[in-house]
Amino acid sequence: MALIPYEPFRHLENMRRELDRFFTADFPALRTVFGQNFGTPSIDIHETENEVVARCDIPGVENKEDINIDIDNNVLTVSGTINRINEVKQENMYRQERFAGRFQRSVPLPARVSSEGTTASYRNGVLEIRMPKLIGENKRRIDVEFH
């Protein structure tokens, strides 16, 4: 029988992932209240042989200073602010559904990536982040000397 290292928070991570999937995929209507998204943009992540690619829907961002991208401990965090200049006076507004305010989303990555060489581009409301995979593991086998 193989021994498996004990990871006390493994089940919590699985539960968080399932809840995230439940509220974003199964019931997208639960994500909004009166047309307002709770500040959690949708993210698609896939990997190729050499990199991990994330695409994030954040329409309405006008400046690159309004987007922050962090990679820490194999977790990608995208955050920022969507500012809406008063296009129409509030008393003339009939319906307002476009999100404005702070947003943030953190997702675990499927492979270890390097922040060096990571690129990001924003086009038509979609932020694309390309992160190169780490070539080798930082693990190495240590031989034990017997005397």
Please give a quick description of this structure.
The protein has 147 residues and is mostly beta strands. It has one helix and nine strands, in the order H-E-E-E-E-E-E-E-E-E. The strands form three sheets. The chain has a four-stranded antiparallel beta sheet, with no helix packed on it. A three-stranded antiparallel beta sheet has the order 5-6-7, with no helix packed on it.
pLDDT averaged over residues: 77
In this structure, how is the largest beta sheet organized? 4 strands, antiparallel
Query: How many β-strands, per DSSP?
Result: 9
Are there runs of 5+ residues with pLDDT below 50, and where?
28-37
Order of strands, main sheet, comes to 3-4-9-8
CATH topology category name of the domain at 39-86 and 98-136: Immunoglobulin-like
CATH hierarchy: architecture of the domain at 39-86 and 98-136: Sandwich
Share of β-strand residues: 25-35%
Q: Helices and strands, in N-to-C order?
A: HEEEEEEEEE
- Structural class comes to mainly beta
Taking Cα atoms only, what radius of gyration do you get, to the nearest Å? 20 Å
Q: State the separation between the terminal residues, measured CA to CA.
A: 30 Å
Question: How helix-rich are the residues, as a percent range?
Answer: 10-25%
* Total count of helical runs of at least 4 residues: 1
CATH class of the domain at 39-86 and 98-136: Mainly Beta
Shape: elongated
Pfam families: HSP20 (PF00011)
Organism: Paenactinomyces guangxiensis
Domain CS: 38-145
Family: Belongs to the small heat shock protein (HSP20) family.
